[in-house]
Amino acid sequence: MDEGAGPQKVYEDYLARGRFMIQRARATGEYVFYPRTLSASGETDLEWVEASGLGTVYAITVNRSRDGSVNIALVDLDEGPRMMATVVGVETVPIGTQVKARVERGESPRVVFDPVEPRP
Amino acid sequence: MSHSLRGRTAIVGLGLAGVGEAPGFSAMELLGLSVRAALDDAGLKLSDIDAVFAATSSHAFASMSVTEYLGLRPKYFDSTNIGGSSFEMHLLQASLALEAGLCDVALICYGSNQRTAGGRLVSMSEPQWHETPYRPRHPITAYALATARHMHQYGTSREMLADVAVAARQWANLNPDAFARGPLTRDDVLGKRMVSDPLTSGDCCLVTDGAAACLLVRAERAKDFPKPPAYFLGAAGANWHRSIQAMPDLTVTAASESGPRAFALAGVSREDVDLLMLYDAFTINTILFLEDLGFCPKGEGGRFVQDGRIAPGGTLAVNTNGGGLSCVHPGMYGMFLIAEGVTQIRGEAGERQLKRADIALLHGNGGTLSSQVTAFLGSEAAL
Question: What ipTM was predicted for this assembly?
Answer without folding.
Answer: 0.96
